[in-house]
Amino acid sequence: MAYETVLLERRDSVAVLSLNRPDVRNALNRPMIRDLRAALEELEADAEIKAIVLRGKGRSFCSGDDLEEDFSDIVTASDTLRVIDNLQNITRALLGIPKPVIAAIHGHAIGAGCELAMNCDIRLAAADAKFAFTEARWGYTVTNAGTKLLPELIGLGRAKEMVFAAEKIDALTAERWGLVNHVVENDELETKAFELAARIAANSTLSIALMKRALNASGHMSYEEVLTQEVRDGAIVARSPETLERVAQWASKSAP
After folding, report:
1. For residue 21, which of 11, 106, 203, 211 sits 20 to 30 Å off, Cα-Cα?
2. pLDDT tens digits for 26-40?
3. Range of the domain at 81
């Protein structure tokens, strides 16, 4: 399916989903929110796709919310709540999709753009990437589960510094703090992200789906709840056709 503000490309078992408003550094507006959700729903339903790379076309990954978008139709408090909650649906989609999503970040990942990157499972940054939360500068607040994900990734003190000061950090600082997994050269970003996605896609789809769900939930579970969940997941995969086939291949010395 074709979309207005995103591009969707399938490369064997990996999908490359590109934000496509390069003239405004992929600033997030309501059509893009709608297209992202629809594309993620399409990819979730596609059994051939095992992993997803999320990237931005042009100079940046995503420069944040589009502050020039026409909100003249937003009149009441209920209208505002509806618009913000609709933005939150991107997070629900990215966290909930059972397939791993890798963010390939270059240029700016600002505000909602940084939140979008954090919603992904793994983050690769180009050497020129810059990260910031500028909401306080404009009188807004952090959304897309950023107030939970950011301190989980970089610690509460650094999260408060980023959010309160509204200042940019560079890619190497983001890597050192734990905001991104790896920093790569600019011209290697897409290749490295695709290679990682392909390596992940070669592994068990069911195992990854269950472990993504478990890892995302573990932060608000007790140890006993985690142990119980691991028993359930282990029982699900133990007799699954995919697991039985992979074990049989290993037993016959034919690697899956």
Report:
1. 11
2. 999 999 999 999 999
3. 6-201
Are 216 and 89 contained in the same domain?
A: no
68 tagged catalytic = no
Please name the residue that has the structure tokens 């905001």.
Answer: 179
Residue 1 belongs to some domain of the structure: no
Task: Considering the candidates 135, 152, 161, 185, report the single residue annotated as catalytic.
Answer: 135
Helix 146-154 to helix 112-119 angle, to the nearest 10 degrees? 70
DSSP β-ladder status, 169-170 and 130-132: antiparallel
**Known active-site residue 242:** no
For 124, list phi and psi in degrees, rounded to 5. Answer: -110, 135
Catalytic one among 44, 115, 161, 242?
115
DSSP per-residue codes, 201-256: HTS-HHHHHHHHHHHHHGGGS-HHHHHHHHHHHHHHHHT-HHHHHHHHHHHTT---
- What's this model's pTM, rounded to 2 decimal places? 0.94
* Nearest-angstrom CA–CA distance, 229 and 219: 13
* pLDDT tens-digit map of 121-165: 999 999 999 999 999 999 999 999 999 999 999 999 999 999 999
CB 236 within 8 A of CB 244: no
Distance CA 8, CA 116 (A): 17
213 exposure class (CB count in 10 Å sphere: 0-12, 13-18, 19+): middle
Among 134, 102, 129, 130, smallest CA distance to 118 is for 102
Q: In angstroms, rounded to a whole number, what is the distance separating the alpha carbons of residues 235 and 198? A: 27
**Strand extents, DSSP E, the chain:** 6-11, 14-19, 51-56, 101-105, 108-110, 122-126, 130-132, 169-170, 182-184
